[in-house]
Amino acid sequence: MRRFRNVKIVATLGPASDDYEMIKALHEAGADVFRLNMSHGEHAEIRARHAIIRQVERDLGTTIGILADLQGPKLRVGTFARGEEELHEGATFRLDLENAEGTDKRVNLPHPEIFAALEPGTRLLINDGKIALRVDSCGPDFADCVVVNGGLISNRKGVNVPDVVLPLAALSEKDRNDLEFVCDLGIDWLALSFVQRPADVEEARKLAGDRAAILSKIEKPAAVHCFDDILAVSDGIMVARGDLGVELPVQNVPPIQKRLVRRCRAAAKPVIVATQMLESMIESPMPTRAEVSDVATAIYEGADAVMLSAESAAGDYPVEAVTTMDNVAREVEEDPTYREVIEASRRADRTTVADGIVAAAREIAETTDIKAICCFTHSGTTGLLIARERPRVPIIAMTPIRGTARRLALTWGVNCVITDELERFKQAVVNAAKAARAGGYATQDDQILVIAGVPFNVPGTTNILRVAPCNERLIFASDPE
Length: 481
Known about the structure:
The chain is of the alpha/beta class. The protein has three domains: 8-73 and 169-334, Phosphoenolpyruvate-binding domains (TIM Barrel), CATH 3.20.20; 84-160, PK beta-barrel domain-like (M1 Pyruvate Kinase, Domain 3), CATH 2.40.33; 353-478, Pyruvate kinase, C-terminal domain (Pyruvate Kinase, Chain: A, domain 1, 3-Layer(aba) Sandwich), CATH 3.40.1380. 38% of the residues lie in helices and 23% in strands.
């Protein structure tokens, strides 16, 4: 199933999209990767959705990536005797460890780790930032605060602490159980919430091993501050603008998004832009103009993927939301300005033979009549390197490993084909020509570029680049050996 765009679409599954016909329709409409949100749904529901995705993949003969998104530690206040209270600006309010129902003067905050990190002047944000408190005095089991922004506070509302690095692991006990479950199930990407430091990612990688690639969600100011270190130990990144927009001034988020996308691209690691991209389509069949511009901006920036959350998981128009995202992507990528922006932002430190070969492939493809760049890859690294170049022609990644193909489903412009293990470069060229023709990328009269590594089946050996015809007879005539 050929996509006529390069950016990928991630669609979250949920109550509105948990049967075979809907998941199939979402994939046919344009969803390349499906997100399983571990914050919602029992393991039995997650297993059923996973099975349906794999059935759709088999029935349509395509490659579909699956991303499991771990919940992360959730910081919440306790309950109130009356269910809710109104906090007024300038009033005092206490958070403590007392196991008693809350009033308009205090409420339980069952997280001693937070109190251990607080100091006078620290901000506490409640209910997605609608209520702001400033710590006046604190101890190991309490924090006396002044209400900076008042509002209605109710049972179990979330708490954000943007000014400090909390002494909390990114993986709760629930996350550890979920991690084992989804890795054994056979997911391709594992999204890690509440990342504050590289050690959080390394802990998840030790548990996941090689069963899934690790994608770090950037939603904390601390993660932004040490982003390069987190990127170095991650396989991919999600710019999770929801909590990021709560913990930072909202005007800071767009430039941060732009910087993070460019750094990911330079590192040849996929990046997803997520949260509220088509939020109004939860209830409306049409998006707002601002939402369309938001999606387009992420695509112009060179993001590998854009993501739908509640729009496809719980909305009234999941297929329409995916279709809208697909249409916006096609329109943007046909705009001449898009190529100007993408090429002006191309930046990479090329230090290896593989770096040089993929850069040369892009140059040759853009200066001659080449129809596609075909690469053979075991680990997926060559496909990632070619995608970093953002070439003007399609990328066909050929691999004998289905897991590699599924992980590459998240990467800009990469179209995956499952192939047999190969022993000779000539056979690789023949297979590439067949794949290019079968996918409609080229005809018998066209030329393609073929990238591979010799010896075959050894990761990290990309060392050959060849311009080849798409006609097997010409291939063998040009190289009888």
